[in-house]
Sequence to fold (248 residues):
Amino acid sequence: ASYYDYVPYYPKKDYDFTIRQLAAHTAGIRAYQGKEYALNRPMSIKDSLKVFQEDPLVFPPGSDYLYNSFDWVMLSLAMEEVTGVSFESYVKHTVLDPLGLKNTMPEAPDISKKNQAVCYSRWGSLFKKATPVDNRYKLAGGGYLTTVEDLIKFGKVILEKKFCPEVMDQFLSPQKVRGKSTYYGLGWQVSEDSKGRRYFGHIGNQVGGYSYFKIFPESGLIIAALVNCSDPGIQEVLDGIGEEFQNP
Fold:
């Protein structure tokens, strides 16, 4: 369905694009520019569109792939328009609470910092406290705080097929552009490790934080890691752990 069916006030572009194309990062929406990666001002999801909505599409929808957080900002706004409730509230009442993910929440000024890790940025071999950012406008694209335990719980729900299997099959099917796989489904990275074992999950990098989440459906292995530092440079190590645990 066209995005404009749900958010008719989004500025018209040279091409129409769909909800599915946004979820697959093939809609042609641009990525961060300049210091947008580290915005630190409170914005609603709707207001945050002003950051990028006047820019043209960077390619005709469906013709290429470009990973970016703005796609999911736009999707979360469409969800708000359809449900009539905030994205934060919708996720809390339909996903987090039913699954018992009690330690997954948006970062907000009024939450306790007692159990929250201090965020750092790495400069070569040096570390310094990360620049403060406000990610609440992009909850769907990287604005939640969580724990490894909650990620593992969520992974088990996926493995045990507690979500609608037909829907999850669509989410976990890699999309194609010009006949070639993007290794990305709808919101999920979908690929194989060096031994040809299929996995799906997501790797994320933010100002002051890094996340690694992979599910290997054949072996039932779930790997989750959270690091309170941007670009920690440990993906190869984490990949190796996955291979080690599955070696015959």
About this structure: The mean pLDDT is 93. The longest strand covers residues 198-206. The longest helix spans residues 70-83. The chain has one domain: 3-107+119-246.
